[in-house]
Design a protein that fits this description.
Blueprint: E1 4-5, E2 8-10, E3 13-15, E4 22-27, E5 30-39, H1 43-62, H2 65-94, H3 98-118, E6 125-128, E7 134-141, E8 145-149, H4 157-168, E9 172-176, H5 182-195, E10 202-204, H6 209-218, E11 222-228, H7 231-244, E12 247-251, E13 256-260, H8 266-278, E14 288-294, H9 295-311, H10 330-345, E15 349-352, E16 371-376, H11 381-384, E17 391-397, H12 400-408, E18 412-413, E19 415-419, H13 423-432, E20 437-440, E21 456-457, H14 469-473, E22 476-483
Parallel strand pairs: 1-5, 8-9, 8-11, 9-10, 11-12, 13-14, 13-19, 14-17, 16-17, 19-20
Antiparallel strand pairs: 2-3, 4-5, 6-7, 7-22, 15-16, 18-21
Bound molecules: nicotinamide-adenine-dinucleotide and manganese (II) ion (MN).
Active site: 251
Keywords: Oxidoreductase
Family: Belongs to the aldehyde dehydrogenase family.
């Protein structure tokens, strides 16, 4: 069967890149499985897409928000109907196991249903004026054309966090999917189109970040950039947007830790760390990359974790019995392995995994086993830098205070977790942990779509995509005064008593 040729989606039409170039999207569990070819676009393609989004904007912003919400609800119904098929496609292009890709599609569904509700709830505030016969209120307005740049680890959920609220707020958009997971975005935008999103409102341009991403960032008709990806690229985006005073919302890297105190339910903490560290083969922004253990339970709990990690079934995510899929690409596998070499050279003790899986069926893809380092000390690079793979660094601490200090000893601040039965210590941890998200007696992963999501320090720039806060990102406030006194009234001056 000939590979499917996917095209850019501009102004409601599928068009090839003006460059005439394309690339292959292959299954990281089995590189003989070709999902399709995608355009390698250039700046002209971005220009076309932005022009289409700009032309569609006046009409779309005039559609009442609840009607925009109705279209999103219909798109959500298409996703519900196609969930299984979309999950399979996503496993093929990204590698994570079916259970997780079903969850990814479900997150887009949940985000869409929430967005449809929010469309009837784009509230402002009515505020008393200090003057008589004068009304004051605050309302929300759309902004224009948003640029969206996505990573590959949540191929549909992350585009949905961006597109749904931006559309509800009345904006139009140009989205650049990650080069490794473009098919999921194609299908997602197809659902929007079938549901009735008009031509030009959502445009998709495939290609390299350094070309398509840069062209979007720099385009004068783009009002804002919503970016999820690494902190290195995030800083570049903030720089360019800063020069042009464009709004930018950044969701960046993480180096998340799970603390287990000596009084914790160790079996529960075990389930948590296995899921947190090795789910999605550790390629989650919220993955558990460090395990911080109180001395009293260190040896016993480490043994429990290693024993379970060794049993995890690694393989093709389309096989329902598989618990961990491959890494997304050979490049990602090399990065992970480089960190394993760094860990060894820093003197950490490798207790399981640590070398690419290459025998038998593993030779078809980019497999890497669950890997655990013990006796990691807080200043090692494997304790502070994001690895983005199935590698867990285990750190010994003397007590609660040291656990918190070690957890905070990184430039990132996305997710965090503490296992304890002591409510006083749990509350102190919530106060002292520097992270956007803290879980108590639950792993570092598991965000729900109707709550704010994001992090502190180098994980972001203060915005929260997810929940009601996403609607603040994608809209501008307008403050309105209506003077119905029929006279000129002067704030601060007429009201002054002397
Ligand atoms: P990445 O930063 O390499 O790429 C992200 C996107 O940016 C891709 O679409 C890429 O093509 C594009 N890009 C690259 N260079 C660009 C440039 N100069 N200008 C504009 N766009 C450019 O990240 P990745 O490898 O795709 O994803 C993994 C990273 O994403 C990890 O650091 C992870 O922690 C982070 N992430 C964060 C969250 C979050 O919500 N905080 C969620 C998922 C992933
Ligand atoms: Mn792929």
């Amino acid at each position: 069967m000939a590979a499917k040729e996917y095209l850019n989606f501009i102004n409601g039409r599928y068009v090839p890149a003006r460059t005439g170039k394309s690339y292959e999207n292959r299954n990281p569990a089995d590189t003989s499985d070709l999902i399709g070819t995608f355009p390698v676009s250039g700046p002209e393609d971005v220009n076309d897409a932005v022009a289409a989004a700009k032309a569609a904007y006046p009409k779309w912003r005039a559609v009442p928000a609840p009607q925009r919400g109705e279209i999103i609800r219909r798109a959500t119904e298409i996703l519900i109907r196609r969930k299984e098929e979309l999950a399979r496609l996503m496993t093929r292009e990204m590698g994570k196991v079916l259970k997780e890709t079903r969850g990814d599609v479900q997150e887009a569904i949940d985000t869409g249903l929430y967005a449809a509700g929010e469309s009837r709830r784009l509230w402002g505030k009515v505020v008393p004026s200090e003057l008589p016969n004068k009304a004051a209120f605050v309302t929300r307005q759309p902004m224009g054309v948003w640029g969206m740049i996505c990573p590959w680890n949540f191929p549909m959920a992350i585009p949905s966090w961006k597109l749904f609220p931006a559309l509800i707020c009345g904006n139009t958009a140009v989205i650049k999917p990650a080069t490794l997971t473009p098919a999921s975005v194609h299908e997602f935008v197809l659902a929007l189109t079938e549901a009735g999103v008009p031509a030009g409102v959502v445009n998709v341009v495939y290609g390299e970040g350094s070309v398509v991403g840069e062209a979007l960032l720099n385009h004068p008709d783009i009002c804002g950039i919503s970016f999820t990806g690494s902190s290195v690229i995030g800083k570049r985006i903030a720089e360019v947007c800063g020069r042009q005073l464009k709004r930018c919302s950044l969701e960046l890297g993480g180096k998340n830790a799970q603390i287990v105190l000596k009084d914790a339910d160790l079996n529960l903490a075990l389930e948590g760390v296995i899921w947190g560290a090795f789910g999605t083969a550790g390629q989650r922004c919220t993955a558990t990359s460090r395990l911080i253990l109180e001395d009293e339970i260190y040896d016993r709990f480490l043994e429990m974790v290693v024993e379970r990690a060794k049993q995890l079934k690694v393989g093709n995510g389309l096989d329902e019995s598989v618990e961990m899929g491959p890494l997304v690409s050979e490049g990602q596998r090399q990065t992970v392995h480089r960190y394993v070499e760094i860990g060894k050279s820093e003197g950490a003790r490798l207790v399981c995994g640590g070398a690419p899986l290459t025998s038998g069926d593993y030779s078809r893809g980019y497999f890497y086993p669950p890997t655990i380092f013990a006796e990691v000390t807080p200043n090692m690079r494997i304790a502070r830098e994001e690895i983005f793979g199935p590698v867990l660094s285990v750190i010994r601490v003397r007590n609660f205070d040291e656990a918190i200090d070690v957890l905070n000893n990184t430039s990132y601040g996305l997710s965090s977790s503490i296992y304890t039965r002591d409510v006083n210590l749990a509350m102190k941890a919530i106060e002292r942990i520097e992270a956007g998200i803290t879980y108590v007696n639950a792993p570092t992963i598991g965000a729900e779509c109707h709550l704010p999501f994001g992090g502190v320090k180098e994980t972001g720039n203060g915005h929260r995509e997810g929940g009601w806060t996403a609607y603040e990102i994608f809209s501008e406030l307008k403050t309105v005064y209506i003077d119905y006194s029929g006279a000129l009234q002067k704030a601060q001056i007429d009201t002054a008593k002397d």
